[in-house]
Design a protein that fits this description.
The strands form six sheets. A six-stranded antiparallel β-barrel has the order 9-18-19-23-22-20. The protein has five helices and 31 strands. By secondary structure, it is an alpha+beta fold.
């Protein structure tokens, strides 16, 4: 009997120990989840406009000191602490004003004790931009040639050959062959054809690396020399111009131009904007994104701008003066991400031949989203736009988002499962390219 009671007691102790561990694990997981949620709620970088009172209302139980390294902070107001730092308490709305274009560092602690995050605070020049919303035809020429695939071909004796296997890979940019610059796809194919089977030395850009690789072409069944790769040297399509700046500069798309097969951001040698007209609309639906069909005549007389940069935040460059006559809107101030609120807003796009405002609802803002193109979650509510397009369609990328009389972002993506919803980029991200 005693032995039985002892076993029962031992078993109860084991159960009790397991429960303690389970409880401790659950509490730890809850604390970690709360900590991570608060960490995500505070952006890693905050921009504020010079000379303007701005309110931060993040409602996070965190506070800390804002510093400017080795230099006196003179622009901030509403502080009675030493001149080399300013105390910030994000548990309540905080009004900040800075008069000089500078960068500061804010070290935040939860409840003033637990380290939370180091935030970069950047004072930027207040800007006005002209919202565009007009369709643009896009043509970009890559730097060298882009490898979109590696595969076999049949040799002259019927065997399967692939000299480029284990040498090149999808996403590589071939910029030189035997110290000669590659001008395009045709140029590269000709160099391989005339190699006479001699080893070729390739200069290749792979991500951030610059590599020197060697490959020896083999004779195909047709008698031509090949190395077994598919390549591309250009891309074209239709998008929407987001804004015009003060000096005939523009920003568009809100995301970069990526290769359709490799998803690689295309390395730009040159790019051109063309006048385009929307001639057809394929309505979007759940599981089937729609599309704007544009007519582009790649003629010199239709060139309206030059693309200087292709970045993850969009395409940027200079445009011709004739663009301004096609944009009927006055300049608007920019709105920073912390100023965006959930609720009513508008986008500008050209569906019926002229750029116009259409109603949307901003559902969420992700102030610290790692994906710079998806900081805004939005839904199309305008009945006219829904009737025409079914929501967001391909070609609307870059449509400016306006709230409270300010440009706050641009449309970037559609949700495939619900074409009325999509994502947008903060305008400050486009301006920081």
């Amino acid at each position: 009997m005693r032995r039985k009671n002892k076993k029962t007691k031992t078993r109860m102790d084991q159960y009790r120990t397991c429960l303690y561990f389970a409880l401790a694990g659950s509490v730890t997981a809850l604390i970690c989840a709360c900590y991570f949620a608060l960490w995500k709620k505070v952006p890693s970088n905050i921009k504020i406009r010079a000379g303007v009172d701005q309110t931060l209302d993040l409602q996070v139980p965190a506070s800390g000191e804002i510093y400017k390294e080795a230099v006196e902070v003179s622009g901030f107001t509403k502080s009675n602490i030493p001149k080399d730092s300013v105390h910030i308490d994000l548990a309540k709305p905080v009004t900040i004003k800075a008069n000089t274009i500078e960068k500061y560092v804010l070290d935040l602690k939860l409840f003033g004790i637990i380290p939370l995050k180091t935030v970069d605070v950047q004072v930027i020049q207040d800007k006005t931009l002209t919202p565009a919303g007009i369709p643009i035809g896009i043509y970009v020429k890559t730097q060298g040639v882009l490898v979109i695939g590696v595969g076999d071909f049949t040799g002259e004796n019927g065997e399967n050959l692939c000299p480029a296997q284990y040498v090149l890979q999808s996403g590589d940019y071939i910029t030189e062959v035997n110290d000669e610059e590659i001008t395009g796809k045709r140029d590269f194919v000709e160099k391989v054809k005339h190699s006479e089977g001699q080893e070729m030395v390739l200069q290749v850009k792979r991500g951030e690396e610059n590599l020197t690789l060697k490959v020896r072409p083999e004779t195909s069944q047709s008698g031509d020399y090949k190395i077994g790769i598919w390549i591309r040297d250009n891309a074209q399509g239709v998008g929407t111009m987001t804004y015009l700046g003060d000096h005939a500069d523009f920003g568009a798309l809100g995301h970069g131009i990526n290769d359709v097969d490799t998803s690689t951001l295309m390395e730009l040698e040159k790019g051109t904007l063309y006048h385009t007209e929307i001639i057809g609309i394929t309505r979007g639906g759940n599981g089937a994104p729609g599309e704007l069909t544009g007519y582009i005549e790649y003629d010199e007389s239709n060139i309206i701008g030059e693309i200087k940069e292709n970045t993850s935040e969009g395409i940027f460059g200079n445009c011709s003066e004739q663009i301004y006559s096609a944009v009927p809107f006055d300049p608007l101030p920019i709105g920073l991400k912390q100023e965006i609120t959930r609720g009513k807003a508008q986008i500008i796009c050209s569906i019926n031949g002229e750029p116009d405002y259409y109603d949307i609802e901003i559902l969420e803002t992700h102030l610290d989203n790692d994906n710079v193109n998806r900081g805004i979650v939005l839904r199309i509510t305008d009945p006219d736009l829904l009737a025409l397009t079914g929501g967001i369609v391909q070609g609307m990328s870059g449509s400016p988002i306006v709230q409270g009389g300010k440009i706050v972002g641009a449309v970037t993506h559609v949700l495939v499962q619900d074409s009325t919803k999509g994502y947008g980029i903060f305008i400050e991200n486009m301006l920081s390219h």
